[in-house]
Amino acid sequence: MERLPRWADVALVPLVSLLLAAVIAALVILAIGQDPWEAITVMVQGSIMDSYGWGYTLYYATSFIFTGLAVTVAFHASLFNIGGEGQAQLGGLGVALCCLFLPWPHWTLALIGATCAAALFGAAWAAIPAYLQARRGSHIVITTIMFNYIAAALLIFLLVDVLRPAGQMDPATANFPEATRLPTLNELPVFNLFFTSNVPANVTLLIALGMAVVVWLLLWRTRLGYAIRAFGKSEAAARYAGISPFTIIMVAMLISGGLAGMMAINNVMGEAERLLQNSASGAGFIGIAVALMGRNHPVGVVLAALLFGFLFQGGAELGLWTKIPIEMRTVVQGLVILFTGALDVMVRMLLTRIFNLFRAGRMAKGAA
């Protein structure tokens, strides 16, 4: 059986998976007595038909780009990092400490410092599972998911007993100083031509896109990236070539954790302007689906992040303007993950069979 053409494997398989997920979602909406056409209309109008909707879609997509890239880097080293949620929460702690306790004269300097702090804290939280995997053989999936719960508990303790201002009931830090406030897209030159009203999407979007380029360069244009991908393809062959498994596991997970931690500059520093209890808001887990759908390539991750940003914002609009519950967006996300992840092989086999039948028909026609 011949393989699919490259363009079909990269573009057609995800598209067919997405269409199948949409069909099943439409059937679910029909089953609860609602109109699928009304649902898609509301989602499109509320997500991409005006600058307000785009502002929220891009805000969510920014977080998903960071966490999707985090999963991507680890995946190419054959490591399944599902601890992005905890790493993002610890990244938020780094942002909060940096913004609250260091005097920043301008947001540009504060952004550089907070980005470094977020990456450092996220990488540090990923370093422990990485070391356990490299030295003790502890499976990275088990340790990273356990560290998500440890991170959540640690953050609750710090917000309730250490960082919460006196007299405040809400488990959160104080608001960050005005000098650390990041400009939103409607305040940036060129972008303000399209975003005329206040939106939550901020300058962090540009950093996320920049990190996508950096990850592409790292994985496909550097010796380290080649070593990471070689180790991910075959650990035995990588060992034979002189590549250190310990070094690759540690470096890949440190980069992955750093990228996940950087997500915090979007929602902690950019939107909330303080550290809240659930600052990651599930973006660490969504990053897994984003990486899967994006075929673990930075370009695909950006496109998949936009899709999930659309689903998040569109789902919120469903809850506001229709009788369809907002939880429907979770159903749609689950279906997208199901078809792009668990059923990916089924879709690929189906398309391969169709392509083979088409090839056979062309050959028979040519022979005749």
Automatic annotation (TrEMBL):
InterPro entries xref list: ABC_transp_permease (IPR001851)
Membrane topology summary: Multi-pass membrane protein
Main localization category: membrane
Compartments it resides in: Cell membrane
Keywords: Cell membrane, Membrane, Transmembrane, Transmembrane helix
Organism: Paragemmobacter ruber
PANTHER family recorded: ABC TRANSPORTER, PERMEASE PROTEIN, GUANOSINE ABC TRANSPORTER PERMEASE PROTEIN NUPP
Record field: transmembrane: 12-33, 53-75, 110-128, 140-160, 199-219, 240-263, 275-294, 301-322, 334-355
CDD domains: TM_PBP1_transp_TpRbsC_like (cd06580)
Pfam families: BPD_transp_2
Tree of life domain: Bacteria
Identification of the protein by name: ABC transporter permease
Taxonomic path: Bacteria, Pseudomonadati, Pseudomonadota, Alphaproteobacteria, Rhodobacterales
